[in-house]
Amino acid sequence: MAAPNADGLQALLSTLQNSFETKIILSIINLLDELLSAGTDRRVHYLISKGGSEALLQAFVNTASSISPDYNVLLPLLHLLAKVGHRDRKVGEKAEKVGAVLLTLSLLKQNVEHARRAAACLWVLRVFCSSASAAALLGENQCLDAVFKLISPNATKNTRTVKAAVDAFAGLLRSKANGRRAAAKGYVSGLLRLYEDWHHREVDHTRVTICRALLHCLNQAINTSAANAALLADGGLGLLFRTTQACLDNEKLLPLVEPAVQLMRKCYPKSSIPITSEWSTHVFPLPSGSPMARNTVPETQDEDLEEDNEDDNESSNDHMLLRRMLVLILSGNNPNGHKSEEGAQETPTEVSSTLPPLLVSLGDRKDDDQEINLDKLRAQSEPDRPCDQLGQYARLCSELHHDFQDLDSRSERKASADGQDPVANGCNFEAEKCNIFRPESCLNEERTLRSLCVLQESQTPHEGSEKLCFLNEPPQASGFHGSCLRKHDMVAKLLEKYRTHPPHHSLYSVPHDSHIYTGAAATRTKSVAGYSVMAFPDYWGHLPPQIQEPMVVRQPNIQRKKIFEDIQRFICPDELINKIVFDLEDPSPQASDLSNSLQFFSGFESGNLRKAIRVRRNEYDLILNSDVNSSENHQWFYFEVSGMESAVCYRFNIINCEKANSQFNYGMQPVLFSVREALEGRPYWVRIGSEICYYRNHYCPFQGPRGSSYYTLTFSMIFKHSEDVCYLAYHYPYTYSALQNHLKILQESVDSRKIFFQQQTLCSTIGGNSCPVVTITACPTSHSWTHLHQLHNRPYVVLTARVHPGESNASWVMKGSLEFLCSDDPVAEALREIYIFKIIPMLNPDGVVNGSSRCALSGEDLNRQWKKPDPNLSPTIYHAKGLLSYLSSTGRSPLVFCDYHGHSRKKNVFLYGCSVKETLWYSGSVINTATLKEDTGYHTIAKVLSQLAPAFSLNSCSYVVEKSRESTARVVVWREMGVHRSYTMESTYNGCNQGIYKDMQLGTRELEEMGAHFCASLLSLRRNSVLCNAKLMHHATALLDLEVNPPDHSSQKSFEDDEPPCSETIEYCGNYYLKHSGDELDSEINDNVSSSEEEDEKDEEDDNDDDKEIDCLIRHCSVVNDNSCPEQNKGKTFPPPLPCNRNIEVAYTCMSDNSWTQLTSLLSRVYPILK
Ligand SMILES: [Zn+2]
Prior knowledge:
single chain; six-stranded mixed beta sheet; 10% strand; 42% helix
């Protein structure tokens, strides 16, 4: 049946609310019911929008207020009201307005013995309770008592009414006052007992349905702390635990398990993490005068976190978009672009002549927040510092000033030309003035000992080579505050034991000496805690994992199992050991409690375990340290563990994780490095762990939003060896010391006659570590003008990584890029000839050194500082931006900028870029984007990568510019430097769900390969420049022939998790039940229309008819206060004064004589009672 048109519907509704003819009302109700049940929810919402709820409510009030309500009308009316009201968020308020709330309650009170009518009233009451004030009003009028009585413990029939009563009770508990009332009156205990009682009954569908409803009711109740306390005091958690265990054995009862588990999680008492303060144990005094970043609540945390709430951002979005469009226009005319060199597809931005009307249309909107003055907009894009300060960065571009006079004669480049370059020194850079640049120490240092590590030939990741990575240099004179750290007996012992047979002997230029290890200090690296021991994997080196490891298949109900174990802690506290076995703040408790216990340690670079508590024999709670000068950001972890027994399963729980979800729920495993394995010739980080699960726990932060909780990452594992020292980490570690060694190895490996490889110091961090910047390009063939000219005209590519220290995967990708660019792969050779690469491989060395997840020593996220970086607090960002601004100011804005990141909640590798058009599309803007021309060249790299790099996923790429990302590298470089191809590259910590790596976790090799592929894809941007190179054509046809199609916009995705829902509920929240209730209610109502229960009740009903009528009259009479009588009833004997109520008046008027007689006779019976 088609929905009636608006006029027809409105006429219908108007008749409904004004008519008192039962036949008319009934037929309208039937008609509406038929209309609505035939269609979808849309019809109901349409009806609501046309005033359907109001009409039904009025009709209900009209009918129910009559002295003898006609239940043939009232019942269908209540049913329809429940169905419609359930979908009308405002029905409670509307009902209050017309007085329908208490009327329904009184109707219920009259019909407690009449199951069918009671059920209808209960549904309507439940629906009204969507308004907290309606729920509160009902609570004040003893509704809780009336409803609770209907949840009879012994009911065997009328179970539909019982269910309706439980649901209505749950509705009433939406009001916290009712929750307190329920707790005070013992109804919480009552509900628990009822649950227990229903739970023990014969298994049938009804039992499950009612039990579920009771669980929901309890779930609502414990939103009030009084009710939660009542539940716990009454042993509710234990009861729920026992009954739920019983459910596990009975398939029919399984539907109860999940709601019961969620309820238990919710009522589990909240507690603080067992530490004295969430603030990091490491405090770093910031430069004087700097504002301490404390007490700043981070808004959006990551490239991967959800979008900011967009509700009220509309106007500023428009403003932002307008700005972006103008930036685009301006950059399209930017004389500094690389127009001539970029090939056909790289045509600079054109702006259609239709743009002005668009601008006008935006400008027309009355909004003070919008800036439509072009000059002002331009001003906003101006550099954040005076232009004359940019000159200092010339020293970082010495390749432009170098005359290469020594090209033919030199046999070895003195690579450490930093600061000594004649040209660089010649320009007045102002480093000393602000004391930011500190002299590069590492490269000029005379080595007292030779490097322990040797790079095996120059191989590219392409060729599947294996390199032993990053062996640190043995210690030099330690410049450290020699904090006395735990001695590594076991490592020393192991080194001693294996001394005669060092693995990879040929790789080492000096024999191993255990003393080097035990006394080792990460010499040049400055840590806040003054680490003097280096982690064994950094010292020894490690190889890429031997095999690609598949993602683990999640075991069914693993979360449930873990939560049961957690709940047992509360129920049986006596079974717990609860001994602190490691504490950064207080090392003393260790000695006495360590027998048979695992031992923990994290006092080394990138380590960050704060505390370990042995909970049960083989179960440990671990607490991560916050980022330095911060009270949060726990995600990355890295620690050492020893004292293990082989063949024993240990459970580890990291209990203060913060993100709402994690790839640990989708097949990802942590990584482990075993010293024993390394010494036996298998120096690999391996993925490890079973029963892995990530879920919200009952610990809450000392501060932070109310109701916020931490998350637990739990995993179990069996150690292979008993006498071993192992390292566990979130992901393959890559420390700052590793980077320094890697750069040194790389520098030594390149042929300096062919490759210009220069490592310089961008600046010093506030922690005193130098931030390296590397330049890679091809040396000119000669120092002739032509060759030098060609060099000077190469566009720049700027790559950065590791601004977020916990994202070690970004460093592995960067390592791949660096090695590829220094390799003799023909593509790499071509890239060096057509580009100059400026690479800042670690934007946040301090964060990496100190084991932070997200921030710098300032306690700030450096990737939110790009708009206005503070030179004292965020020097690396200040100078990275300075370098980019310098390039831009000299007409050398990079062709490509890319910042490498890691993504904790998605699979694959993908790019975020910037596009005005796509931002407009996805903002739902009404602006016709067809009229806006935009250079689509920003798609090229992603397109090429999707065909080149197995881990890359085009579908996950996005080019939407979000307000919350305004101060990230990607957006600032795009907007302020006019770099069209400005990207964030996100790499998963886990693996892929597509391509040849599908269902595999990525190892370091695959990450490095990704870095190589990213560079290779850059070739496609300048194919015209390389077409003449025959050798290259042979090797790189695939790269150069790739079709660059117009963008496929269907690929756009939001920033949310793209995982399918987990089989288990990851989060718990109040609306766990909501998804069930809509259709359930409809079907219950439909059953009530023609029910067998009803027939059972017939006899009873007939018997009681008189009483019901009397009740009804009593109700009316109780509010009577007027004795006016209609004209046409003159002569009839009137009952006692009746209300001045139009409805009753009319009811009287319309009564047949027969009814009248009945009424008067009834009233005469009632009257004495009233008296
Ligand atoms: Zn990041």
